[in-house]
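Collaborator request, handled under Task 6.
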Amino acid sequence: MMCDSIEAASRSLKEKTHKSISDIVDSIINYQLIENQYDDANITFKEIKLAKQIIKNRLMNIYHVRIEYPKE
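Structure tokens returned to the collaborator:
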């Protein structure tokens, strides 16, 4: 459910940056949490946090988004 929603939404992003990907993952999963869509799922907040990070990393790999290095 998480991945299906996020994958579809990520295709509509005009700019596929680290921030835009991170924002869309967070907003979709947070919305699903607020809507109690995980109430019957055997998943913890720790696992949801891990899933967010994995999905973000995978999408950044798919769209070849490079991490932003600090400016010196």
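The cover message to the collaborator said: "The chain has a mean pLDDT of 91. The CA atoms of residues 43 and 56 lie 19 Å apart. Please let us know whether this matches your experimental observations."
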